[in-house]
Amino acid sequence: MGRGYTPDGQEFSLAVRGRNVLVAGDAKSGKSWAAGLLCEQLILHGYSVCIIDPEGDYRSLEALPGVAAIGGEGPPPTPRELVRALRYPDRSVIVDLSHMPQPDKIDYIKSILPAVNVLRRRIGLPHRVLLDEAHYFLHDADAGRLLDFDVNGYLVVTYFASRLPQPLLDASEVIIVICESNPFEIDALRKRCARCPTTDAAAWSKLPHLGYGQAVALPVTEEAEGQLRWFTLGPRLTPHVRHRQKYIDVPVSDSRAFVFVNRRARTLRQFTDVLSDGRVSLDGYLRRNDFSRWITDVFGDVALADDLQRIEQRYKSGWEFDVPGELINAIRSRYDLSDDEVPQPAVAA
């Protein structure tokens, strides 16, 4: 389950077993990308996965065979409907809650997890249950009854591991960290590994400095062999598509806006407007990888950043092509701008 590569070029993978997996790290660090990679591999190996997706981050997995997405702009499935959809071993379901108000998400998840637990005890399906943004839903007294540790097979994603119930932390047999800069969270993760052989304080101090696409398997993970095992995440077959309406017109703060020489872009639509303006030179931004870095740091969209970085690299290599057009098309393909909304670039950079 999952795939990556260690610094010496060796493949790093996790065994496909019914273990509980915790993916932790800073907000917008790429946790959902990593969890999506794990789900992708499970699905391709024929496992049934129930993905509880509060923000619409896993919708692209619907492109895989046997995967259905329910919810989103439509109503989410009732517990009975969800159980019915999960009765087949070759089917996986994404429950998209991106259009639901946060208090309703909490109540809804509390209603479906027990129903899924009953199904898993009865027929063993789904093989795995993923819950993203888990700190919002598993931090109170009800959390204990929402998870069935006799069955296990949970994949939990969070940027507040310290808020998760202790039984879940104790039962997490695989812990993957995608850049963690909060000392309090690092300490909580380190306590989970207190009985592991490693005492390398220097290794723990590097968690805030993980690079783009890097991850660490903590010592409790069997494949880490009692150490902090560094690796680079493998590629995904399906793109990581965030909720299509989530960012295109939602402004970021002035401090996080992209600053051109004489213009400031606070939304992705404003950003594409500037890219299409032939009077704005893009040369310096392309050479410094400013565009891909902004998308990663501000929006946390690893896949889009990858696309922009490839365009930046081609430009720096001296290729002649419509740079603004390709940048705009990359953003368009991620966020579904309609044809009449997409600005047309005046000239190439």
Commentary on this structure:
The chain has 349 residues and is α/β, with parallel strands linked by helices. It folds into two domains: 4-233, Rossmann fold (3-Layer(aba) Sandwich); 254-341, no CATH class. Helix content is 34%, strand content 15%. The chain is built from twelve helices and 13 strands. The chain has helices at residues 31-44, 79-85, 102-123, 143-146, 166-171, 183-192, 201-204, 268-275, 283-287, 290-299, 302-316, 323-335; strands at 4-5, 11-12, 20-24, 49-53, 67-71, 92-96, 128-131, 154-158, 172-177, 214-217, 229-233, 258-259, 264-265. Strands 2-1-11-10-9-3-8-7-4-6-5 form an eleven-stranded mixed β-sheet. The protein has a two-stranded antiparallel sheet with strand order 12-13. α2 packs across α3, α10 (290-299) runs antiparallel to α11 (302-316) and α11 packs antiparallel against α12 (323-335). The radius of gyration is 21 Å and the shape is globular. It starts with a strand and ends in a 14-residue tail after the last helix.
